[in-house]
Design a protein that fits this description.
Layout lengths: L18 H4 L35 H10 L5 H9 L15 H4 L2 E5 L14 E5 H8 L14 H30 L7
Antiparallel strand pairs: 1-2
Helix pairs in contact: 2-3
Bound molecules: zinc ion.
Zinc ion (ZN) binds next to strand 2 and helix 5.
């Protein structure tokens, strides 16, 4: 099962990797409020975004992630291949704490529909896309036989876009009720 954190002693990788949440490695802290002389720490914005600048090659990124010992090589390869973004909605999974906690992987063709556990059939995905929006939806019947990984992902993206649009309409309806201006009947 994805998303289960495992101990460092275990041969399995910790997933999602925990090093960024410990503050020892990872992106620099965003400039912001510093607590000076106060014992109360300032609020941490879980939505803070970091800039992205790719300097290393994918192989070097994988190598260095594995060297942190928080990553298994397979997970590092899958993540680097996707440029650390959800392959379905483009959420930058290293963009913020909240996004980081969304870290997940999905079997593009679900195992239950005969999909394999190979890297080819795995997509880096945010939790929302994986569980709420895709939810084991199988893109295969929507594609030509022998469709490529990219074509299957493209079908999933289309499916997720349609679902998101319909949920957005619902949310907008609720907003109209919740935030209706005073004086309106
Ligand atoms: Zn997503």
């Amino acid at each position: 099962m994805w998303g289960v954190e495992r101990s460092r002693r275990n041969k399995h990788p910790i997933w999602p990797p925990t090093s960024l949440t410990k503050g020892s490695t990872g992106p620099r802290k965003a400039p912001g409020r510093q607590s000076r002389g106060s014992s109360v720490a300032g609020p941490v914005n879980p939505n803070v975004n970091f800039t992205r600048e790719t300097i290393l090659t994918t192989d070097r990124i994988v190598e260095q992630l594995v060297a942190t010992r928080d990553w298994g090589e397979r997970d590092a390869r899958i993540s680097a291949r996707a440029n650390f973004k959800c392959e379905y909605c483009d959420l930058d999974l290293l963009g913020s704490v909240r996004a980081y906690k969304e870290w997940n992987k999905d079997h593009i063709v679900p195992i239950s529909a005969g999909g394999s556990d190979s890297e080819e059939n795995i997509a880096l995905a945010c939790r929302t896309c994986n569980f709420s929006l895709k939810n084991k939806w199988n893109p295969e019947p929507r594609c030509e036989p022998g469709a490529t990984r990219e074509q299957l992902i493209s079908a999933v993206r289309e499916h997720i876009r349609a679902k998101t649009t319909s949920i957005l309409k619902q949310v907008q309806g609720f907003r109209e009720i919740a935030f209706r201006e005073c004086g309106e009947s």
